[in-house]
Amino acid sequence: MTPTLALTCLLASSQMTAMAATEIPVLVVDTPIDYDHPALASVAPEAAPVNLTTQAAFTGTLPDDASGWDHGTHVAGIIASWSMAQSENPVTIHNAVLFPTPEQDTPGIEEPPEDKTPEMLQAELENMTRAFNWDHQLNETRARVDREATALEATIQRRAVRVVNMSWGEMLLGQMIGVLLTASIQDEDVTGASVIARVNTLMKITEDRYREMIRRNPEVTFIIAAGNDGRDLNRAGDPIGALSIDRLLRSALMGTMGDIPGLNAYFSNIREPNVILVGALNASENRMARFSNHGAESVDVLAPGSSIRSTITHGRYTEMSGTSMAAPAVTGLVARLLQIDPELSAGEVKEIIVSSTDRRNRWRNKVRSGRVNRAEAIALCREGRRTKDTMLAAAVLLATL
Question: Which of 13, 21, 43, 151 is spaced 20 to 30 Å from 384 by Cα?
Answer without folding.
Answer: 43
